[in-house]
Give the backbone structure.
Amino acid sequence: MKPVAYTLERHPDLLAACAQLASETYTKPIAGGQSLGAMLNLRLAQPEALVDLDAVAALHRCDEDAHGVTLGAMTPHAAIEDRVVPDVTQGFLPKVARGIAYRAVRNRGTVGGSLCHADPAADWITAMAAAGAVYTVHSAAGTRHIDAGSFMVSAFETQLAPDELLTAVHVPRLSADARWAYAKFCRKTGEFALAIVAVVIDPARDVARWVVGALDGAPRVFDDPRLATTFADPLARAAWLADPALDLDTTRRALLDDLIAQAVREIHP
């Protein structure tokens, strides 16, 4: 199957790209195209026009300061994996990037594209929530900022309005004493995860964040320093996972039990 007919727009200016999205024509932005390309061919997406974001120079910028790094939304996964862009997370984000799909996908796929696609099983939607990232969003009406933990509303749905673009991701700098862990289960290398656990413990910034991802909807974020103790005890961990509020089936509960235990070992070697 091939896509429906559409026009392809290339705007070097961010405001022009936003204006195109705000037009009455059904328009979708395309970043690396690793997810949207397949959806077009399957006709799961049938836009009248695409806005190619590769020409927007502002989306490729990466700026570091004392507080962290701001990654342009068009930053490819491979640039994070190879540390072409500054790593302020002591190896956390490069590890996440290294585990995404295959190298060919990492070369083309972008951070912003993955986040906006909002597949629950994708890596960045969980990892950025654990890192405490903040997203910058632009539209013809102006700019706003969204916390990573609340950006995804449900499977394949985010807070973005149809005329808004995610333009940048600000990742806070981890302190020297920070610890982190990232564990996921895939049936085979390169596939989407069936369960993900991401942890960032940074006492200097009063951060103790656990994120459970690859669920049926948005990842679940838990800011609670007591969880490290709870999760170190197999019985207490099992009781926590059995909480009806988590709404976990037996298989996913077992997977998460193993992944949380792995994460505990990584932050307390």
